[in-house]
Amino acid sequence: MNAAGKIIGAGRALGGRVVTNKDLEKVLDTTEDWISTRTGILERRFVTEDEDCVSLAIEASKRAIEHADVPADSIDLIVCATSTNPESMPSVACLVGEAIGVTGVGAMDLGAACAGYAYAASVADSMLKSGAANRVLLIGADAMTHIVDENDRSTSILFGDGAGAVILDKGDGESGFVDHILGADGSMAPLGRAGHPGDDQKLFQNGREIFKFAVKMFPQMVEKIAARNDVSLDDVQYVIPHQANARIIQAAGRKLDIPEERVVVNVDHFGNTSAASIPLSYPDIFDDFEPGKYIITVGFGFGLTWAANLYKI
């Protein structure tokens, strides 16, 4: 089983403003209990006036480099999954490279909405296995409040702002990403769309239909990627799903019959941070990694897009 992309460091950054359900209760036609019951979210983080997707990505990257204890200039590729770059160009990845002192190397953004990190992990892994890169800075970053209508109760209660970053080393083939599944179906695009930050077209989603899609797709992807690699779910230490809604995660976990402690959940404190939701989970579990075990990450988002990654610890 050829693995590449060993995670040697992880970092995250969150919007500087903590927004609780009680805060939203004051400005929306909703209640603290209604939000927590239907979403599992207790609070989320919003960017302040001097923060955006780029600043979060930079801070998360600096922390990942510090955690990995490697020179920044040892990174030879930067990949950032995002849907909320405040500019059409340059890419967030380019600006991150300049900020951390890594210029002259490949830097690119990838857009697959909330499945962005899972897609980007596949790209990074492929570059490492091909020899095109030896050490990759992989980022998921989104400032969702820049595209959400703050007066829309159905969406403004769900989303938060954050970034997660990991340093992937080519490794020795024993630890790292093993397999990926990517999928998309543009016929389901009407279920969720949004304009660019600053546009009049704010985020819209058909929450009921996306909920049904995610509850079905999440366990299917976990079972499929495990089965085709002959990996028992008993050997999976963690499943890290996109943090869309606690009810989705709980329903899928019951279908898979995986103990709750092995399904990573942080939506309660961070909300739905789109492409950031999977990588900002790593700092909480990194020190508990058990060599020889596996991690399965699953993303699903507007497009509709979906993806799963199998990682060997």
Describe this protein's structure.
With 313 residues, this protein is an alpha/beta fold. It has one domain: Peroxisomal Thiolase, Chain A, domain 1, CATH 3.40.47. Helix content is 31%, strand content 26%. It contains ten helices and 13 strands. It has a five-stranded mixed sheet, with helices on both faces. It has a four-stranded mixed sheet with strand order 8-13-12-11, with helices on both faces. Helix 3 crosses helix 4 and helix 7 packs parallel to helix 8. The longest helix is centred in the C-terminal third of the chain and has 21 residues.
- Per CATH, the class reads Alpha Beta
Per DSSP E runs of 2 or more residues, the count of β-strands stands at 13
Domains (count): 1
Helical content stands at: 25-40%
Radius of gyration: 18 Å
Strand composition percent: 25-35%
How are the strands of the biggest sheet laid out side by side?
1-7-6-4-5
Order of helices and strands: EEHHEHEHEHEHEEEEHEHHHEE
Secondary-structure class = alpha/beta
Kindly report the name of the CATH homologous superfamily.
Thiolase/Chalcone synthase
Q: How far apart are the first and last residues' alpha carbons, in Å?
A: 12 Å
The stretches of 5 or more residues where confidence is low (pLDDT under 50) are none
Query: CATH architecture, please?
Result: 3-Layer(aba) Sandwich
- Total count of helical runs of at least 4 residues: 10
Please tell me what the overall shape is. globular
CATH topology: Peroxisomal Thiolase, Chain A, domain 1
Q: What is the average per-residue confidence, as pLDDT, rounded to a whole number?
A: 96
How is the main sheet built? 5 strands, mixed
